[in-house]
Design a protein that fits this description.
By secondary structure, this protein is α/β, with parallel strands linked by helices. It is 38% helix and 19% strand. The chain has helices at residues 10-18, 32-47, 103-108, 137-147, 154-167, 178-189, 194-202, 207-219, 235-241, 251-255, 291-296, 314-330, and strands at residues 21-26, 51-55, 73-74, 86-90, 111-115, 127-130, 221-223, 228-233, 263-272, 275-283, 300-302, 305-310. The strands form two sheets. The chain has a six-stranded parallel beta sheet. The two termini are 38 Å apart. Bound molecules: guanosine-5'-monophosphate (5GP) and manganese (II) ion. Manganese (II) ion is lined by residues 33, 91, 116, 136-137, 167.
Protein backbone atom coordinates (compact mmCIF):
# COMPACT_ATOMS: atom_id res chain seq x y z
CA UNK A 1 0.00 0.00 0.00
CA UNK A 2 1.29 3.49 -0.73
CA UNK A 3 0.97 6.29 1.77
CA UNK A 4 -1.51 9.04 1.12
CA UNK A 5 0.07 12.06 -0.51
CA UNK A 6 -0.35 14.87 1.99
CA UNK A 7 -0.45 18.13 0.17
CA UNK A 8 2.97 19.67 0.47
CA UNK A 9 2.46 23.37 -0.38
CA UNK A 10 3.51 24.12 -3.95
CA UNK A 11 5.42 27.22 -2.89
CA UNK A 12 7.51 25.09 -0.53
CA UNK A 13 8.46 22.63 -3.28
CA UNK A 14 9.18 25.54 -5.60
CA UNK A 15 11.44 27.19 -3.01
CA UNK A 16 13.37 23.95 -2.47
CA UNK A 17 13.87 23.51 -6.21
CA UNK A 18 14.70 27.14 -6.92
CA UNK A 19 17.64 27.60 -4.55
CA UNK A 20 21.11 26.16 -4.87
CA UNK A 21 22.94 26.65 -1.56
CA UNK A 22 20.64 25.64 1.25
CA UNK A 23 21.34 25.62 4.95
CA UNK A 24 19.17 23.14 6.86
CA UNK A 25 18.69 23.96 10.55
CA UNK A 26 16.61 22.78 13.49
CA UNK A 27 16.24 23.73 17.13
CA UNK A 28 19.23 23.93 19.43
CA UNK A 29 19.75 20.98 21.81
CA UNK A 30 18.52 18.78 18.98
CA UNK A 31 16.38 15.78 19.81
CA UNK A 32 16.15 12.87 17.37
CA UNK A 33 13.31 14.50 15.42
CA UNK A 34 15.19 17.78 15.03
CA UNK A 35 18.40 16.11 13.87
CA UNK A 36 16.77 13.22 11.99
CA UNK A 37 14.56 15.59 10.00
CA UNK A 38 17.56 17.88 9.30
CA UNK A 39 19.67 15.01 7.96
CA UNK A 40 16.75 13.64 5.95
CA UNK A 41 16.11 17.08 4.44
CA UNK A 42 19.78 17.43 3.47
CA UNK A 43 19.77 13.95 1.85
CA UNK A 44 16.58 14.87 -0.03
CA UNK A 45 18.03 18.14 -1.33
CA UNK A 46 21.24 16.39 -2.38
CA UNK A 47 19.16 13.86 -4.30
CA UNK A 48 17.57 16.63 -6.40
CA UNK A 49 20.92 18.28 -7.06
CA UNK A 50 20.77 21.08 -4.46
CA UNK A 51 23.82 21.78 -2.27
CA UNK A 52 22.72 21.38 1.33
CA UNK A 53 24.56 21.75 4.59
CA UNK A 54 23.21 20.98 8.04
CA UNK A 55 23.60 23.48 10.87
CA UNK A 56 22.79 23.05 14.53
CA UNK A 57 23.87 25.41 17.26
CA UNK A 58 24.72 22.46 19.49
CA UNK A 59 26.15 20.24 16.77
CA UNK A 60 25.52 16.55 16.22
CA UNK A 61 24.48 14.77 19.43
CA UNK A 62 26.64 11.76 20.27
CA UNK A 63 23.57 9.59 20.94
CA UNK A 64 22.82 9.72 17.21
CA UNK A 65 26.33 8.87 16.09
CA UNK A 66 25.09 5.67 14.43
CA UNK A 67 23.43 7.70 11.66
CA UNK A 68 25.19 8.20 8.34
CA UNK A 69 25.66 11.91 7.70
CA UNK A 70 25.26 13.76 4.42
CA UNK A 71 28.31 15.84 5.42
CA UNK A 72 29.58 17.64 8.50
CA UNK A 73 27.00 19.12 10.87
CA UNK A 74 28.11 22.73 11.35
CA UNK A 75 27.80 24.31 14.77
CA UNK A 76 29.34 27.64 13.80
CA UNK A 77 28.47 29.84 10.87
CA UNK A 78 32.15 30.74 10.52
CA UNK A 79 32.72 27.37 8.88
CA UNK A 80 30.11 28.08 6.18
CA UNK A 81 31.87 28.03 2.80
CA UNK A 82 29.55 30.73 1.38
CA UNK A 83 26.34 32.59 2.14
CA UNK A 84 23.34 30.28 1.70
CA UNK A 85 20.49 31.43 -0.52
CA UNK A 86 17.83 29.67 1.59
CA UNK A 87 17.53 28.48 5.19
CA UNK A 88 15.22 25.52 5.80
CA UNK A 89 14.00 25.64 9.42
CA UNK A 90 12.77 22.36 10.89
CA UNK A 91 10.96 21.37 14.08
CA UNK A 92 10.94 24.90 15.52
CA UNK A 93 7.73 26.16 17.14
CA UNK A 94 9.17 29.64 16.84
CA UNK A 95 12.19 31.34 15.32
CA UNK A 96 14.08 31.80 18.55
CA UNK A 97 14.33 28.02 18.95
CA UNK A 98 16.94 27.97 16.18
CA UNK A 99 19.37 29.60 18.62
CA UNK A 100 21.11 32.95 18.81
CA UNK A 101 23.84 32.31 16.24
CA UNK A 102 21.43 31.93 13.34
CA UNK A 103 19.21 34.95 14.00
CA UNK A 104 21.18 37.52 11.93
CA UNK A 105 21.26 35.13 8.97
CA UNK A 106 17.48 34.61 9.22
CA UNK A 107 17.04 38.38 8.89
CA UNK A 108 18.85 38.57 5.57
CA UNK A 109 18.28 35.21 3.83
CA UNK A 110 14.91 33.76 2.66
CA UNK A 111 13.54 31.05 4.93
CA UNK A 112 11.08 28.18 4.81
CA UNK A 113 9.50 26.87 8.00
CA UNK A 114 8.55 23.17 8.27
CA UNK A 115 7.13 22.13 11.63
CA UNK A 116 4.48 20.26 13.61
CA UNK A 117 4.08 22.45 16.70
CA UNK A 118 0.76 24.03 17.64
CA UNK A 119 0.96 27.81 17.64
CA UNK A 120 3.87 28.08 15.19
CA UNK A 121 3.64 31.72 14.04
CA UNK A 122 4.51 30.89 10.39
CA UNK A 123 7.81 32.76 10.47
CA UNK A 124 9.10 31.49 7.10
CA UNK A 125 9.54 34.28 4.56
CA UNK A 126 9.18 32.07 1.42
CA UNK A 127 6.98 29.21 2.57
CA UNK A 128 5.49 27.65 5.68
CA UNK A 129 4.24 24.11 6.21
CA UNK A 130 3.00 23.53 9.74
CA UNK A 131 0.97 20.40 10.48
CA UNK A 132 0.26 19.88 14.19
CA UNK A 133 -1.51 16.64 13.24
CA UNK A 134 1.76 15.10 12.08
CA UNK A 135 3.68 12.96 14.52
CA UNK A 136 7.11 14.36 13.74
CA UNK A 137 8.84 16.92 11.57
CA UNK A 138 10.46 13.85 10.03
CA UNK A 139 7.03 12.84 8.75
CA UNK A 140 6.71 16.15 6.91
CA UNK A 141 10.17 15.72 5.40
CA UNK A 142 9.21 12.21 4.25
CA UNK A 143 6.23 13.65 2.42
CA UNK A 144 8.39 16.36 0.87
CA UNK A 145 10.88 13.73 -0.33
CA UNK A 146 8.05 11.73 -1.87
CA UNK A 147 6.63 14.80 -3.58
CA UNK A 148 10.10 15.42 -5.03
CA UNK A 149 10.23 11.77 -6.15
CA UNK A 150 13.19 10.95 -3.91
CA UNK A 151 13.06 7.28 -2.77
CA UNK A 152 12.89 6.79 1.01
CA UNK A 153 15.88 4.48 1.20
CA UNK A 154 19.29 4.11 2.83
CA UNK A 155 20.53 6.84 5.20
CA UNK A 156 17.53 9.02 4.35
CA UNK A 157 15.10 6.32 5.52
CA UNK A 158 17.13 5.70 8.68
CA UNK A 159 17.10 9.39 9.61
CA UNK A 160 13.33 9.55 9.04
CA UNK A 161 12.71 6.44 11.13
CA UNK A 162 14.75 7.81 14.04
CA UNK A 163 12.82 11.10 13.89
CA UNK A 164 9.37 9.52 13.79
CA UNK A 165 10.15 6.78 16.29
CA UNK A 166 11.38 9.30 18.87
CA UNK A 167 8.51 11.76 18.60
CA UNK A 168 5.89 9.00 18.80
CA UNK A 169 7.51 7.38 21.87
CA UNK A 170 8.47 4.46 19.68
CA UNK A 171 4.99 4.36 18.12
CA UNK A 172 3.10 4.41 21.40
CA UNK A 173 1.82 8.00 21.92
CA UNK A 174 -1.53 9.21 20.67
CA UNK A 175 0.19 11.00 17.77
CA UNK A 176 1.04 7.60 16.24
CA UNK A 177 -1.27 7.94 13.25
CA UNK A 178 -1.98 5.29 10.63
CA UNK A 179 -0.16 7.61 8.22
CA UNK A 180 3.04 7.51 10.29
CA UNK A 181 2.82 3.72 10.59
CA UNK A 182 2.20 3.33 6.85
CA UNK A 183 5.22 5.48 6.16
CA UNK A 184 7.44 3.17 8.20
CA UNK A 185 5.85 0.10 6.60
CA UNK A 186 6.62 1.52 3.20
CA UNK A 187 10.24 2.20 4.15
CA UNK A 188 10.58 -1.38 5.43
CA UNK A 189 9.14 -2.66 2.15
CA UNK A 190 11.75 -0.52 0.42
CA UNK A 191 14.65 -2.12 2.29
CA UNK A 192 14.93 -0.37 5.68
CA UNK A 193 16.54 -2.95 7.96
CA UNK A 194 14.65 -2.28 11.19
CA UNK A 195 16.27 -4.86 13.51
CA UNK A 196 19.75 -3.69 12.51
CA UNK A 197 18.86 -0.03 12.98
CA UNK A 198 17.19 -0.62 16.36
CA UNK A 199 20.20 -2.58 17.52
CA UNK A 200 22.39 0.44 16.74
CA UNK A 201 19.88 2.82 18.37
CA UNK A 202 19.61 0.88 21.60
CA UNK A 203 23.16 -0.20 22.35
CA UNK A 204 25.01 3.08 22.38
CA UNK A 205 24.79 4.34 25.98
CA UNK A 206 27.95 5.62 27.61
CA UNK A 207 28.86 4.71 31.18
CA UNK A 208 28.53 8.39 32.08
CA UNK A 209 24.95 8.41 30.88
CA UNK A 210 24.05 5.21 32.71
CA UNK A 211 25.48 6.48 36.01
CA UNK A 212 23.84 9.90 35.67
CA UNK A 213 20.46 8.23 35.09
CA UNK A 214 21.01 6.08 38.18
CA UNK A 215 21.63 9.17 40.28
CA UNK A 216 18.65 11.04 38.83
CA UNK A 217 16.29 8.10 39.42
CA UNK A 218 17.51 7.86 43.04
CA UNK A 219 16.79 11.55 43.61
CA UNK A 220 13.50 11.87 41.71
CA UNK A 221 10.88 13.78 43.70
CA UNK A 222 7.39 12.37 43.85
CA UNK A 223 5.06 15.29 44.58
CA UNK A 224 1.39 16.22 44.51
CA UNK A 225 0.16 12.91 45.94
CA UNK A 226 2.12 10.97 43.35
CA UNK A 227 0.81 12.88 40.36
CA UNK A 228 4.02 14.81 39.66
CA UNK A 229 7.49 13.30 39.26
CA UNK A 230 10.25 15.91 39.10
CA UNK A 231 13.93 15.48 38.39
CA UNK A 232 16.16 18.41 39.27
CA UNK A 233 19.50 18.16 37.52
CA UNK A 234 21.89 20.80 38.76
CA UNK A 235 25.08 22.03 37.14
CA UNK A 236 26.92 20.47 40.08
CA UNK A 237 25.45 17.04 39.31
CA UNK A 238 26.27 17.32 35.62
CA UNK A 239 29.83 18.31 36.47
CA UNK A 240 30.24 15.57 39.07
CA UNK A 241 29.37 12.94 36.48
CA UNK A 242 31.14 14.64 33.57
CA UNK A 243 27.76 14.59 31.84
CA UNK A 244 26.24 16.94 29.26
CA UNK A 245 22.67 17.91 28.43
CA UNK A 246 22.64 15.10 25.85
CA UNK A 247 22.95 12.54 28.62
CA UNK A 248 19.63 13.74 30.06
CA UNK A 249 17.69 13.09 26.83
CA UNK A 250 14.90 10.62 27.68
CA UNK A 251 14.87 11.08 31.46
CA UNK A 252 11.55 12.94 31.44
CA UNK A 253 9.92 10.07 29.52
CA UNK A 254 11.39 7.55 31.94
CA UNK A 255 9.78 9.32 34.92
CA UNK A 256 6.34 9.06 33.32
CA UNK A 257 6.58 5.29 33.72
CA UNK A 258 5.82 5.52 37.43
CA UNK A 259 2.19 4.44 37.99
CA UNK A 260 0.00 7.34 39.04
CA UNK A 261 2.23 10.07 37.63
CA UNK A 262 0.25 12.42 35.40
CA UNK A 263 2.98 14.95 34.72
CA UNK A 264 6.72 14.43 34.65
CA UNK A 265 9.06 17.37 34.82
CA UNK A 266 12.77 17.55 34.23
CA UNK A 267 14.58 20.73 35.27
CA UNK A 268 18.08 20.77 33.90
CA UNK A 269 20.34 23.64 34.80
CA UNK A 270 22.59 25.22 32.20
CA UNK A 271 24.88 28.20 32.14
CA UNK A 272 24.33 31.09 29.77
CA UNK A 273 26.52 34.19 29.80
CA UNK A 274 27.82 33.26 33.23
CA UNK A 275 24.32 32.87 34.68
CA UNK A 276 22.43 29.76 35.65
CA UNK A 277 19.14 29.09 33.84
CA UNK A 278 16.99 26.02 33.66
CA UNK A 279 15.60 24.03 30.76
CA UNK A 280 12.22 22.60 31.73
CA UNK A 281 10.80 19.55 29.95
CA UNK A 282 7.26 18.40 30.64
CA UNK A 283 5.41 15.23 29.65
CA UNK A 284 1.83 14.06 30.17
CA UNK A 285 -0.69 11.92 28.35
CA UNK A 286 -4.26 12.13 27.05
CA UNK A 287 -6.07 15.36 27.83
CA UNK A 288 -3.52 16.55 30.40
CA UNK A 289 -2.15 19.68 28.75
CA UNK A 290 1.42 20.57 29.63
CA UNK A 291 1.87 22.93 26.69
CA UNK A 292 -0.22 25.49 28.60
CA UNK A 293 2.19 25.20 31.54
CA UNK A 294 5.23 25.72 29.30
CA UNK A 295 3.52 28.65 27.57
CA UNK A 296 3.17 30.42 30.95
CA UNK A 297 6.96 30.58 30.99
CA UNK A 298 7.50 31.62 27.38
CA UNK A 299 7.88 28.08 26.05
CA UNK A 300 5.65 25.81 24.02
CA UNK A 301 5.45 22.44 22.33
CA UNK A 302 2.63 19.92 22.15
CA UNK A 303 -0.21 19.03 24.54
CA UNK A 304 1.69 16.05 25.97
CA UNK A 305 5.31 17.17 25.44
CA UNK A 306 6.41 20.73 26.05
CA UNK A 307 9.31 22.78 27.29
CA UNK A 308 10.55 26.20 28.31
CA UNK A 309 13.67 27.94 29.55
CA UNK A 310 13.45 29.87 32.84
CA UNK A 311 16.04 32.33 34.19
CA UNK A 312 16.12 30.53 37.55
CA UNK A 313 17.92 27.65 39.20
CA UNK A 314 16.18 24.27 39.31
CA UNK A 315 14.81 24.59 42.87
CA UNK A 316 13.26 28.01 42.22
CA UNK A 317 11.88 26.86 38.89
CA UNK A 318 10.11 23.96 40.60
CA UNK A 319 8.58 26.35 43.13
CA UNK A 320 7.20 28.67 40.48
CA UNK A 321 6.01 25.93 38.12
CA UNK A 322 4.30 23.63 40.61
CA UNK A 323 1.10 25.73 41.01
CA UNK A 324 0.67 25.85 37.23
CA UNK A 325 1.21 22.11 36.97
CA UNK A 326 -1.67 21.57 39.45
CA UNK A 327 -3.95 23.18 36.88
CA UNK A 328 -3.27 20.27 34.56
CA UNK A 329 -5.43 17.91 36.59
CA UNK A 330 -7.60 20.50 38.34
CA UNK A 331 -8.94 22.20 35.25
CA UNK A 332 -12.39 21.35 33.95
CA UNK A 333 -11.89 19.20 30.86
P1 LIG B 1 11.83 18.76 25.10
O1 LIG B 1 11.25 18.69 26.45
O2 LIG B 1 12.10 17.40 24.54
O3 LIG B 1 12.95 19.71 24.96
O4 LIG B 1 10.69 19.37 24.18
C1 LIG B 1 9.39 18.87 24.16
C2 LIG B 1 8.57 19.62 23.13
O5 LIG B 1 8.43 20.98 23.54
C3 LIG B 1 9.23 19.68 21.77
O6 LIG B 1 8.20 19.60 20.82
C4 LIG B 1 9.91 21.02 21.75
O7 LIG B 1 9.99 21.53 20.47
C5 LIG B 1 9.01 21.87 22.62
N1 LIG B 1 9.82 22.83 23.39
C6 LIG B 1 10.79 22.54 24.28
N2 LIG B 1 11.33 23.66 24.79
C7 LIG B 1 10.69 24.70 24.21
C8 LIG B 1 10.83 26.13 24.31
O8 LIG B 1 11.64 26.68 25.05
N3 LIG B 1 9.99 26.86 23.52
C9 LIG B 1 9.07 26.28 22.70
N4 LIG B 1 8.28 27.08 21.96
N5 LIG B 1 8.92 24.96 22.58
C10 LIG B 1 9.72 24.16 23.31
MN1 LIG C 1 9.44 17.21 16.67
Amino acid sequence: MTIEQHSVPDELLAALRRHQRVLVAAHAHPDPDAMGSSLAMAWTLRAIGVDALVFNEDGMPAFLNFLTLPGPVLSSLESLPCEPDLVVCLDCGDRARLGDALQPLLDRVPTVNIDHHLGNPLFGSEANWVEPGMAASGELVARIAKALRVPLQGALAEALYVAISADTGNFSYSNTTPGALRLVAEMVEDGLNLPRLRERMETNWTETRMRLWGRVMQDVRILEDGRLAAALITLDTLRAYGATSEDTEGIVEQMRKLAGVRVSLMLREEEKNGRVQVKASLRSSGKDNVRDVAAQFGGGGHRNAAGATLPLDAEKALTVMQPYIRFVWNRLQ
